Amino acid sequence: MHAAQLDAYRTALKTTMSGREIEASVLTKAALMLKNCQENWDSENGNAKLEEALKFNQLIWSIFQGELTKADNPLPNKLKEDILSLAVFIDKRIFDVMAYPSPEKLTVIININLSIAAGLQGR
Hints:
Structural class: mainly alpha
Radius of gyration: 16 Å
Largest sheet: none
Strand content: under 5%
């Protein structure tokens, strides 16, 4: 597929997806990026890919944190608190992996991302 066609497809996909579907898709993408890093830990460009995957995950969870703290967020307070607690945990784990890289440390982030994505998709 050519770049212009791919961009058109992505735009169309985004306009037809619900917010929950987009969130699930992004979390799944983030988990797969981390899984790829984990499986190819010693590859030539592994450090760059790890940095990219960690930053992408950090961005997603930062957006979640921002959305959850908005006064007009309709989620129940307990659910918001639970997701914010997960976000803090994810942040700490990302910083830990950045400081002391280890492929097994990625597993918990991958599992959380995939579990949340599955919940958003109703699975």
